[in-house]
Amino acid sequence: MPEPNRKGPFRIEEDWFAFVVGILIALGVFLGFIRHVPW
Amino acid sequence: MAKIPPPEYDSWFAYLVRLIPGLLLCILLGFVAWYLEGVAYGKWGKNIPLNYVIIAILLGMLARNVFKLGERFEEGIVFSTKVFLYVGVVLIGARLNILQILKVGGAALVMVSISITGMVLGAGYISNRYKLGHRVGHLVGTGIGVCGVSAIIATAPAIKATDKELLIAIGASLLTDVMCLLGIPLLGHYFGWNDTFVGYLSGTVPSNTAQCIATGFAFSETAGSVATITKSARNALMPVLILVMVYYYTRKGLPVGEKVRLGILWSKMPKFVLGFLALSLMATLNLFTSEMVNTMKHIYMWLFSFCFVGIGASVDFREFKRRDLAPIAAGFVLTFVLFFYAYGFAGYVLGAK
């Protein structure tokens, strides 16, 4: 599946967004805000 | 398969409206995959070559090919296959020691440097020999050798490829990945290959990042981690490859969309890999307890589950009917060559087998 154009002005920039969200989740776990996620 | 061009959004609202249907579909089917994994394990035990990875991919393929998903799902599906995956990869860093990454990644870097060069040159040769078009050849080679759709899209403007050439290369890369995704874990189970070896194969042979990681995790946790490191090393080489191709096209006097400049190395660098390295550095300093690591593992398994539905939903078998089959056949040939190369290198040079 080709990807939609990434140049639009209103669009999340996935690479940086994932970097920030990943670090925030890790921080949340590290500081004890997120724990015991079931699987 | 949707058309490439691409929605230009006028507002965040318009963007979210296009994003949400596909996103919800991936999340919903991700939960179904988790549920079905539990059912399968309850019935047959955990030693079956069927886990949430395979189930999620099959559910995605089912949704795409049986229920004929419309274009309104595309944006969310692409988002899921990328963002959930990248966030998951960042979190995997918390489980890996940076020395382990450097050891596996260093070996992988040597292995993939050779394979990338071979693939790009091989694809160029095949496309010239069978008159597929010079750029299509380079795009297919870049896609299969480096990292699939992202590498193709990143390289295309630099060498001024047309939309048709872009679509052909993307189709070839996605279809060959399906073969790897289903084939490598099955071969691994059948021949009793070890986790590290399957991880190296999974990180080297499929072209797209999500598909590499899915292939590894479809086999085992360890294979998934080795595949993640190997693929990250491959992704990190992408900016170098683009710079070399821009230089080559410029020297040949062909139209090029980029200037030869060192800034390409940073602008094309996949930034989420930095998050992955940052967390592995924290893990190396023993900043995470085993409980924290377990929590992050469960989070990334959820994210991967959503992402893998998106991978399945990206596979449209009707493409076989629509597309020019020659570049796809070239993609399959290159993938087989890559498989035997990775088998030999990882097995006998790195001694992983």
What would your notes on this structure say?
The complex is a heterodimer of chains A (39) and B (353). Helix content of chain A is 44%, strand content 0%. Chain A has one helix spanning 14-30. Chain B is built from 14 helices and no strands. Chain B has helices spanning 12-44, 52-65, 74-92, 98-129, 134-158, 163-191, 195-204, 209-219, 221-251, 263-267, 272-284, 290-313, 319-322, 325-349. Chain B is 78% helix and 0% strand. With 353 residues, chain B is mainly α. Classes of the chains: A mainly alpha (39), B mainly alpha (353). Chain A binds chain B through residues 1-12, 14-19, 21-23, 25-26, 29-30, 34-39, and chain B through 1-12, 14-15, 34, 74-75, 77-79, 82-83, 85-87, 89-91, 94, 149, 153, 166-167, 170, 174, 270-272, 274-276, 278-279, 282, 287-288, 291-292, 295-299, 301-302, 313-316.
**Between the first and last Cα atoms of chain A, what is the distance in angstroms?**
30 Å
Judged by helices, strands and strand pairing, the structural class of chain B is mainly alpha
* Mean pLDDT score of chain A: 81
The number of helical runs of chain B is: 14
SSE string of chain A, helix = H, strand = E?
H
- Percent of residues of chain B in beta strands? under 5%
Largest interface: A-B, 31 and 59 residues
Oligomer: heterodimer
How would you sum up the major sheet of chain B? Answer: none
**Span from first to last CA of chain B?**
38 Å
Question: The biggest beta sheet of chain A, please?
Answer: none
- H/I helix tally of chain A: 1
Total DSSP E strands of chain B: 0
- Please tell me what the overall shape of chain A is: elongated
Radius of gyration of chain B: 19 Å
Rg of chain A to the nearest angstrom?
Answer: 15 Å
| Portion in strands of chain A | under 5%
